[in-house]
Fold this sequence. Notes:
By secondary structure, the protein is mainly α. It is 71% helix and 0% strand. The protein is built from 8 helices and no strands. It is elongated and about 95 Å long. The N and C termini lie far apart (89 Å).
Amino acid sequence: MSAERPIAPPSRDPAAFAVFYQQQFDTVLGFVTRRTDSAHLAADLTADIFLTALEQADSYDARRGTPVAWLYGISRNVVASHYRGNVRELNAVARIAGQRMLDDQDVSAIEERIDAAREARTLAVRHAALSEPLRAVLDLVTVDGLAVREAAKALGISAATARVRLHRARKALQKAVPQTNTTSASVNTLLEASS
């Protein structure tokens, strides 16, 4: 950079900021490379610094210092913030050191539980929407484990009526949870026909 050429002040105007960027790129890259030994990290931090400078260009005040001093302040904050984040990450890793990490099976099991919970919420809404007679038979058979005849006796209705109500209740719930390969075993059990 020539000493005769004045340093462009930071500006949000793309053309003006491009001039500022070109004039200050080597300065910022030098600042960053003195603080890291990773070329990729140096490139990332340099980009972050100029992005922050562009976002804060309106805050530049020539009375408070030169554009270079302003840019060094931003550079220092961006680099410090990066390393603070790394320290937090390293501390978190140290806290979980020795703990078993999730593998593919664990992730699959969690996804299955999430799917099952979603299905259960859908079923609960549909269950609540059933008429009381349908819900009563369904609950006695599927939740309480009674045979259809026992449920019929408990409700004071015929076994045939209990079977019809149970069939209607299950059909209504099947509409809520279409059968897929991922439908949980508990939902399938609830929806199976019972004799």
